[in-house]
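Ops channel
N.P.: pipeline sanity check, posting one input/output pair.
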């Protein structure tokens, strides 16, 4: 169809700025949509045109009808959903293309195929992608769940079929806990996803969370751009990521990337996506976890190590164009770490939104900051607590660690300090990130998804 000339970004804050930046560099006219509480955020001013959405802040970025109306009024040619909100909504993807616009993402059918975790497990197994021991279908009722858990062996994880992003799951260590946790997960899944089906999988006590970045090209071919280790998590959500993974050997990398390509190809995948695996570091076995049918929060570390702009490639694929770089000749260079800076209590990880009075990000060689906020802006409780992503790149993991420690120490984010307090101001997890970087376990590279609980005692 040719080059995309105008783009509506159906998202906010950090990821909206990230997409706008690449679009601007490519001479694409940009349209931002924003809620009333986001009016002062940088992404709104950085778009060529910005339109305020009507409605409650919690709902407007999911208002597909209103967003498509804005696209029509502003003459946008394409829609980029970012991550979260409508990014993995197959109905929205379909509505965008039905409206005659370009959807900067995978086909709706691929989103649906990977959105149903039970069906996705079966599809992956058929494509020779390893899956963890678990139920072959959704379990209906506590008794069926208990029977599957007994067959698999405790501990197990009860997971929402429509869940993802660390939400809609619970670990069960024995039969006495099962009924209560089953009730919690099914109720949560029904409320949040509109689908209360759950399945059961083996829970690995010590495991790493490793994902592979894939690009489904316009030609139909799928390529993999290495792995990212996302094992540092709180509440099953990532806070620190790195590439390459210290746990992955060249031989294992080849196997994981080949499995990720098979997984994406099995659903006719196009555009950027991520295939997530659980890795047993002791045995080297890995199992399919899920596929994120969108751009990942942690995509920048792949960009700096591989020297590629993934958003630019997304736009080219959506337009039916070949890659802007020779993807087959790309080779990783050095090591990168991303740290998610959140507006939250650094010990209990509870949201702590508020006004930002001081915002002084670090800079220098090998340091990149993708931020959604600035001094004078306010973090609202209506949205995710992510403020910015600090990305550091070094010649080696040791170099990247040194840069990360210096950059975290230099990053200054403060709220109002009336009477010497920060009452009414934002609080961040920067002290926690410094704690992770200084921990012998993380420094060794031999950590797993339990590292945060061990740091917290």
């Amino acid at each position: 169809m040719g080059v995309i000339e105008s783009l509506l970004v159906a998202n906010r804050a950090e990821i909206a700025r990230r997409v706008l930046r690449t679009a601007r560099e490519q001479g694409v006219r940009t349209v931002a949509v924003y809620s009333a509480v986001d009016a002062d955020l940088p992404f709104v001013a950085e778009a060529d045109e910005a339109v305020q959405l009507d409605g409650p802040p919690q709902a407007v970025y999911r208002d597909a009808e209103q967003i498509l109306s804005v696209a029509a009024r502003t003459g946008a040619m394409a829609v980029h959903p970012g991550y979260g909100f409508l990014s993995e909504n197959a109905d929205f993807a379909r509505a965008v293309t039905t409206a005659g616009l370009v959807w900067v993402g995978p086909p709706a059918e691929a989103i649906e195929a990977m959105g149903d975790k039970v069906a996705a497990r079966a599809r992956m197994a058929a494509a020779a992608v390893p899956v963890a021991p678990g139920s072959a279908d959704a379990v209906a009722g506590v008794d069926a769940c208990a029977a599957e858990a007994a067959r698999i062996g405790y501990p197990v994880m009860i997971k929402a079929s429509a869940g993802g992003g660390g939400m809609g799951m619970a670990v069960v260590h024995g039969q006495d806990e099962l009924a209560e946790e089953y009730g919690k997960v099914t109720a949560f899944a029904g409320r949040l996803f509109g689908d209360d089906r759950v399945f059961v999988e083996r829970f690995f006590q010590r495991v790493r969370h490793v994902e592979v970045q894939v690009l489904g090209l316009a030609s139909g071919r799928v390529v993999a751009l290495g792995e990212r280790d996302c094992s540092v998590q709180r509440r099953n959500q990532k806070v620190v990521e790195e590439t390459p993974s210290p746990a992955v050997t060249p031989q294992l990398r080849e196997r994981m990337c080949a499995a990720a390509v098979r997984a994406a190809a099995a659903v006719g995948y196009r555009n950027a996506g991520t295939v997530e695996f659980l890795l047993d570091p002791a045995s080297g076995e890995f199992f399919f976890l899920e596929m994120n049918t969108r751009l990942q929060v942690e995509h920048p570390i792949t960009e700096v190590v591989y020297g590629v702009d993934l958003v630019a490639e997304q736009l080219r694929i959506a337009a039916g164009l070949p890659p802007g770089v020779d993807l087959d000749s790309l080779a990783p260079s050095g090591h990168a770490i991303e740290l998610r800076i959140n507006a939250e209590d650094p010990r209990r990880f509870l949201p702590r939104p508020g006004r930002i009075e001081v915002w002084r990000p670090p800079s220098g060689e090998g340091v990149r900051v993708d931020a959604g906020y600035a001094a004078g802006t306010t973090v609202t409780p209506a949205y995710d607590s992510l403020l910015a992503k600090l990305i550091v790149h070094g010649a080696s993991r040791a170099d990247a660690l040194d840069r990360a420690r210096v950059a975290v120490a230099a990053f200054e984010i403060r709220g109002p300090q009336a009477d010497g307090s920060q009452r009414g101001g934002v609080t961040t997890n920067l002290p926690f990130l410094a704690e992770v970087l200084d921990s012998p376990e993380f420094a060794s590279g031999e950590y797993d998804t339990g590292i945060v609980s061990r740091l917290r005692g």
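N.P.: looks fine end to end. The first helix runs from residue 13 to 25.
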